[in-house]
Amino acid sequence: MWKLALRNVLRHKTRTGMTLLAIIAGVVGLILSGGFVHDIFTQLGEALIHSQSGHVQLSRAGYFEHGARSPEKYLIAAPEPIRKEIAAMAGVDDVMGRIYFAGLLNNGHSDLPIVGEGVEASREARLGSGMVITAGRKLGDKDEHGMMVGYGLAHALKLKPGDWATLVMNTADGALNSLDFQVVGIFQTFSRDYDARAVRIPLTAAQYLLATHGVNTLVVSLKHTRDTAPIAAALSRKYAGAGLEVKTWLELNDFYAKTVKMYDVQFGVLRIIILLMVLLSVINSVNMSVYERVGEFGTMMALGNRSSRVFALIIAENVMIGLAGATLGVVLGSVLALIISAIGIPMPPPPNADLSYVAHIRVVPSVVAGAFAVGLIATIVAAFLPAARVRRIPVVDALRQNV
Amino acid sequence: MAIVNTLAVDFRLALRNILRQRRRSFIAVAAIGFGVIAMMLSAGYIEWIFWANRELTTVNQLGHIQVSRPGYHEEGQANPWAFLLPENSPALNVIQHIPGVKSVAPRLSFNGLISHGENTISFIGEGIDPIKDPSARNLAILDGQGLNANDPKGILMGTGLAANLGVKTGDTVVLLANTPSGGINAVEGRVRGLASTSMKEYDDTMLRVPIGMARTLLRTQGSHLWVVSLQRTEMTDKVMKRLKADPALKGYEIVPWTKLADFYNKTVALFSRQMGIVKSIIALIIILSISNTMTMSVMERTVEIGTAMALGVRRRRILGLFLMEGSLLGVIGGACGVLLGYLAARIISAIGIPMPPAPGMSRGFIAAIMITPTIIWEALLLALTTTLIASIYPAWRASRLVIVDALRHNR
Which one of A68, B100, B153, B244 has the fewest CB atoms closer than 10 angstroms to its CB? Predict the structure, then answer.
């Protein structure tokens, strides 16, 4: 019977071709739309990881909840051995220390509250591919009194590279300490609110100001974002005894989770519409090509074939067409996605940011598998109704379609 | 006359053909109709998202029009005292009496230090009118309550600021700030509630107080902004024109929300591109689905076409006949689609699509589908054009066939 079905499929070239086309178009549509939405999420995540949070952060237990008030109470006193240990783990790209402080930045006329970070300049430069320097340059290892200022902050205080500004902050014992820094660069991340408040100075300068050798967090950057969960779990197991706590970038960026959730629902509605369209278009094609062959099925039945055999034959044919269509759709969809990605879709800057980016269409295994399943199942299910109806048509009536 | 006659006959023939081929016509109409419905629903849904973005998020935070001293928006942060507006002025009076203006609320920005017990940290504050200011209603309050006119000492702060300071709702705090004359002043306040925008850096420094309290603290009667709310967003342009033309408002900077709403404008730009891409995928599927069905249904009638040609019907007339059939199907399918699509949109809107809260918003919202005339025209145009083009090709091919081959088709 499968041989017969295959022959039928090959014999009705136009009909098979049209049905295939409907399935392929549907599968391609699902792959492209799903891959595009997925890319939006991935790019937002990567931007956050590479401009601010890294993949995983380690700190003293309790720091993330209560530490912002007094970061000096939550120092990892001897970061270097831990840093070396983590850096040696598989999948870890780099580990860098950061120290946080709050204070005021003064340009000589007025001052603004800032959140400051003491960072290891060269290591951060490697992580921070998502951070764009709009003026000046990145902080280097030799800039003892250099500072990078967020775009919004620089604008508010009218600072440009080369200017000097005074950083005022509380020391551990409550006294005020101030130090002059020269602005070496102005940076921009994907978060406007961060850019309006953030300052980066060398880790050593911050440690000197705070009179410590410790760091607040060890920021771990990984080779692949997908390794985040297992590595975070491994770190958690390893350092829980030492009183350290581990947070992934997802936990550190509350904003991301909320945005993704909202986008997911918003695009979800459109994807449901696409799904419905695909289902209807496949059902339409299958319906038509079965009904057009009522005469042929009548002949079969007149020659003594059981109606159940006719039914099985129709289903078998559509299983083949469905398989072929879904496979071709997956291949074509993936190729199209790769081509479009290679060209890139220019996108305007996202809200809360000033940087435009280039969107791609990702070939996501789950989306591809889903599209394949939809194509195949829709074709088979679509065949059931007309097949069942053909079966019930009296042989003479069916034969009459031939005339 | 002869041409008109032929056309009339063709029309009747096309109509009869459609009625005769009931199942084929039905499938074609279904494909076209569903195409129109899908297009209408997706476009209407996107339209709603933009509308909601504008009305629920943007205008609620910025007001429709902001009036300030010239240059305040660029340089106000660096030198706030140079841009103070007077408490009462003829200009304020003028604005309040322009038709369409619902309210004018003063806003005063300041920063300083806040302390509680041993802790003192810096904040970025805004004094707002708890009743008239649109932003007073639109913040996600996580704990306690929002600002209230009956509680002149009640303040609202970001969750991050509260955590850093170690205060909770009900605690008493002291605010310290520089006054325009160069001195330092302090006032006491009570934490009324905690708010969150889900931007951590913002929440870590955000403070909102009733404007009266801010004025006491800064020893000024002025404000930085007059936030004008209108009865309807569409009135913005008209009111802008009147404000710009009024002599009493010379020397003020008047900015509509469209220029202020960087966030909104970017959301619209990005979102329309993103949605546009998804929408074009939908459009492509619709086009393919309709042309598929139309092509199939014409191809299946090759024998019939052959018979007609054998009886002496000219090729050109065959082409015309099928085009006429195609456009009839397109019109019927399009009309059904618009009708059902509109109905579906109404039903879906009545039920509502639940949406999670946007970052920084307290409540999720219920999305709906907004059908505008443009959307209907676009959907119809897409369906009709596709149907016509899709019926040209197979009809043209059929009319090109050798008659005997056409007659033998499918045998």
Answer: B244
